[in-house]
Design a protein that fits this description.
- The protein is α/β, with parallel strands linked by helices and 225 residues long.
- Strands 6-5-4-3-2-1-14 form a seven-stranded mixed β-sheet, covered by helices on one side.
- It starts with a strand and ends with a strand.
- It has a single domain, classed as 4-Layer Sandwich (Metallo-beta-lactamase, Chain A).
- It is built from five helices and 14 strands.
- This is UPF0173 metal-dependent hydrolase MuYL_4751.
- Belongs to the UPF0173 family.
- Keywords: Hydrolase.
- One of its GO terms (molecular function) is hydrolase activity.
């Protein structure tokens, strides 16, 4: 299983011969200017919520790849109005078996409005069960006690926001690792905008001091999970 970072909260996971793209925000991000979205060709796109910095390239990438979009039911309905009828709507607490593995939609504490002002339903995170591994993608979220419900999932990796201001910062993300019982973390949702800029070296030192294996990949960098 391999993951590749494309900036902000956008990752690809390759597993079971399938490509899963999370929260596509690439073309508006100057830090990701070298990424060609037409080359990505995901089989699935997982959307945690409706904000522009998570769905900016959603329609374009879906149309170039015919990917199935996994998202909250309200976003699936919104996509239908844009001519995309192969979205798989879910809701918090529900799970579904896909051809690459199982996806469970879990709670996130945030907000969710689509770029045109339409309501985006509840924000969400995902737990992916595939290729013998269990991966938590938290989406945009505050630290929440609901994360303790994941402690028995034996998570192999967790994608956690660390940029503060709109989501958890580094300190709360470190607390979250104890809630979810996972010490392998990939940081996301930082540096794209001035208000979420972080000192990467200081952040890494905090995670390491807490006994956490932290990865802050460069844009375009791949990591074996």
């Amino acid at each position: 299983m391999k993951t590749t970072y494309y900036g902000q909260s956008t990752f690809m996971i390759e597993t079971g011969g399938k490509k899963l793209l999370f929260d596509p925000f690439i073309t508006p991000n100057p830090m990701a200017k070298d990424i060609d979205i037409d080359s990505l060709k995901p089989d699935y796109i997982l959307v945690s919520h409706g904000h522009g910095d998570h769905v900016a390239d959603l329609l374009a990438i879906q149309k170039s790849s015919d990917a199935i979009i996994i998202c909250i039911a309200e976003i699936a309905n919104w996509l239908g109005k844009h001519g995309i009828n192969n979205a798989h709507g879910m809701n918090i607490g529900g799970g579904f078996d896909f051809d690459f593995g199982r996806v469970k939609m879990v709670n996130a504490i945030h907000s969710s409005t689509l770029p045109d002002g339409s309501p985006g339903g509840n924000p969400a995170g995902f737990v992916i069960y595939a290729d013998g591994k269990t991966i938590y993608y938290a989406g945009d979220t505050a630290l929440t006690y609901d994360m303790k419900l994941l402690a028995d999932d034996n998570l192999d990796w967790a994608y956690l926001p660390i940029g503060d201001n709109y989501t958890m910062g580094v300190d709360d993300a470190i607390k979250a690792t104890s809630f979810i019982n996972c010490k392998n973390v990939i940081g996301m949702h930082y540096d794209t905008f001035p208000v979420i800029a972080i000192d990467k070296k200081a952040a890494e030192e905090k995670f390491i001091k807490a006994g956490i294996n932290i990865k802050l990949p460069q844009i375009g960098e791949s990591i074996e999970l």
